[in-house]
# Entry
Amino acid sequence: MTGAGAQLDAGMLDEAIIREYLLDNPDFFQRYPELLLAMRLPHAERGVVSLVERRQELLRGRVNQLEEEITQLLSMASRNEKIFRFNCALSSELLDCEDMGELRQLLSARLQSQYGFSHVRLITVHDLDSALADIWRKRLETGYYFGRLTQEESQRLFGTDVGSVALTRLSHDCGRVIFAIASHDGSHFHPEMDHMLMDQLRLMLDHLLPKL
# Structure
């Protein structure tokens, strides 16, 4: 091994030992506080700063990150609570429906009013309808589909072009039924979104439809 290579390996080994030692002895700088004032670190914007300043900066960054995460969690919790309350009220109304036509009309009216969806459909898939059969097989292989459709698919499901959709297949007890929601906004429904709203609505429909 060359002299330069040996020096590099030795330096890396020394750094690893120092790192492990500091991790195992977090009170090291409490016992030697003068080192905190003596050590300096390069900073992209402020030049050279002390280790204490750098640590405070990192902690402030971590606090800001945690505050953002908490804000996001609170926002999500609030949104989920609104979804839950809406679905509870909707379930109570749907239980009073006497036939499929009344259920379809009420479901569509409430979802369009609450969320501004452009279309809400319950669509029965027949084997003779190859377009619907293809959507059932290809788009709903995993049970859900969130995103955009082709023009032909949009026309078959909704009778017009739509921006984005949320699709799910109901249980076998309901037959081969697609529950389809559409939005004018092409980015409203997307593959990364959660399934909470559709999950709750699907469970409700799975319970109600076989009884009508």
Notes: The longest strand covers residues 177-183. DSSP finds eight helices and six strands in the chain. Residues 95 and 208 are 7 Å apart (CA to CA).
